[in-house]
Amino acid sequence: MEGPQNQASKSVSPKDKGILILLAWLLGALGVDRFYRGQVGLGILKLITLGGCGIWKLVDIILYTVASLPSDSNNKVIVDKKTIESILAKRGLEQTNLRIEVSHKDKGVLTLLGILLGGLGIDRFYRGQIGLGILKLITLGGCGIWALIDNIIYMVGSLPADDSGRLIPDRRTIEFFNR
How far apart are CA 170 and CA 176, in angstroms? Predict the structure, then answer.
């Protein structure tokens, strides 16, 4: 008999949540995120409407970052692979036990703040990096370049850390494996 965590790992999509968010952010108006999820019909509709004139794109970004975990066309959950990899590497745990001490902050919230307000350094303030937040604010996210790089790192790079050096994981991914 399989435990709930083994059943959870079988229902995980091979797709990555970070890649999904990156596609939604950069190419969401063209429906590329929906094609990535395997939702061809919705991808075409999103392409024809240019992401619902940008509104659908924004809603998808918000849902992917802070709502429940998205799923692919096979109803498998798309999790943040970097959260799993980083936590396993740091603690040497098996994938079925992701309960460790991490930051109380959420990578989804951090990513959303980076996308919407990264040019003002709000993502750095959220991480507890006040000095870098002020610098990013004064330079308007390094004329957008610093903000762009931070956002890409939040989505597909290694897990960011807070001011105490604790990893900031995707809470939905951890909750999925710990249910």
Answer: 10
